[in-house]
Amino acid sequence: MAGLSFAAIDVETANSARGSICAVGVTVVREGKREETVSWLCRPPAGLDFFNWHNIRVHGISAAMVADQPGFAERFPEVVQLVGDLPLIAHNAGFDSGAIREACSRSGIRVPAWSFSCSLSLARRHLNLDSYRLPHVAAALGIDFTNHHDAAADAAAAADIVIALAERAGADSLAALERAVVDRPLRTEPVRAASRTTRAQPEPSGERPRRSWFGHEELVIPTVTGTDPSHPLYGEIIVFTGDLTAMKRQEAWNAIAACGATPARNVTRRATGLVIGDGFRGSDPTAFTTSKARRAAELRARGQRIEVLDEAGFLARIGKGAVEVAARG
Hints:
By secondary structure, the chain is an alpha/beta fold.
């Protein structure tokens, strides 16, 4: 794979603002081989330099850890120098590229004219998985991956995913991999058994819960039980896309039902909220690559009110009590 040369990049943020970059990792691949991996800590741009507890819990980086580090504007030239003229790969590239653009803008420095490809999108095209989060794709391809949300580890994993997909597709360059036509994605995880004949017990109200299918797991759309109109989610119609780390999809549905919100399977003109998982951070649906996110962006452009929450924002919105209800089911 002499032409398979690129740089994989991952950023970690201090809070839900995409530009609040506090860590960057880059892995350089030349001729299909990992050459080096480098990571940096930095202080986020001014105004975005507060650390949310949820982000700290995810990546382990605190304000104290970056207090003596250069600011993003001072650190970023080192990243640019390492990347050079290589094309870039990121897992959910919309987030990383958007974070870099925002961080550069807030720091008053030039945004590099980088060409991004997305290992998440490539994995969706080439593989048939229950989840396309970075650890799941790495495991499916037999890639040794630990320390998720460490910028260096995530960049290296994204690089290894692209190398593995190129080998499977017989592609000798990144451009060839992106052009590859996949008639039948490879199933690399066993399908979980689920019985379509199992029927749920009726709810106390006598109304039979509706059922939906998420991957190969049968989900029950719960009856809305929340009765507090002052709750911020009360009366909302919420759709989920991507996996959450804190809870499964059924638990998330249970949680919002306990808040008085209605879970919905698809983004329609009735939807009022979209929760995006898979490590997404921010509130811009165009930075995430699923049909639900695209539909939300289209409807918002037409004037429909659809609030977009990342996992941190969702957990803060539902509150601890709803999380406990979700866990109990």
